[in-house]
Write a structure and sequence with these properties.
Elements lengths: L5 E5 L5 H14 L17 H4 L6 E7 L2 E10 L7 E9 L8 H16 L3 E6 L4 H9 L3 E3 L13 E6 L1
Parallel strand pairs: 4-5
Antiparallel strand pairs: 1-2, 2-3, 3-4, 5-7, 6-7
Length: 163
């Protein structure tokens, strides 16, 4: 269960290196490829600046001053509908199984609604079973193909949820 020692807050510039390392280490831990995934996203070089724009936000989970994970939303690239994407939601092992994933999704979707998005899209991989279960539990349904252009061609599970 979540206790008050875990804080979900907006990303700050000082978090950039920690969140980059988390995203890349979890991708490798899960056996995902480095290419065609968030591992190689240029946004990882400066996540604070990348999400410091209209209708986008990124949150981190902090525990006693250490960042343990994060997740955010932004407009889905190259897609005309009013759709955001749940992006770069990764947690270190010590942050998993504590309800933080659900809390992060709820926080992100609440902001998406405030920003005026009508639906939220995400991409993942078939063998990320716990993540897929979490997304399904939070109202995402699997669809037959990708939307927009995330450049994550190695992710072949696509999900969406109305807001």
């Amino acid at each position: 269960m979540i206790n008050s020692d875990y804080i979900i807050r907006e990303i700050e510039a000082r978090d950039n290196e920690q969140i980059k390392n988390i995203v890349q280490s979890v991708i490798l831990e899960m056996g995902a490829p480095k290419i065609g995934t968030a591992y190689e996203d240029i946004a990882l070089e400066d996540m604070f600046t990348n999400y410091n724009k209209d209708n986008a936000i990124y949150f981190v989970v902090e525990h006693f001053g250490k960042v343990l994970g994060g997740g955010g939303i932004a407009q889905l690239d190259d897609y005309k509908n009013n759709t955001c994407e749940l992006q770069k939601m990764y947690f270190l092992p010590q942050a998993r199984g504590k309800g933080l994933g659900t809390k992060m999704i709820v926080k992100c979707l609440q902001k998406a609604k405030e920003f005026g998005y009508s639906q939220c899209y995400l991409e993942t991989m078939p063998y990320m079973k716990a993540a897929r279960k979490l997304y399904k539990k939070n109202g995402f349904i699997q669809i037959n193909g990708p939307l927009g252009n995330t450049c994550h061609y190695s992710c072949d599970v696509w999900m969406i949820r109305s807001l």
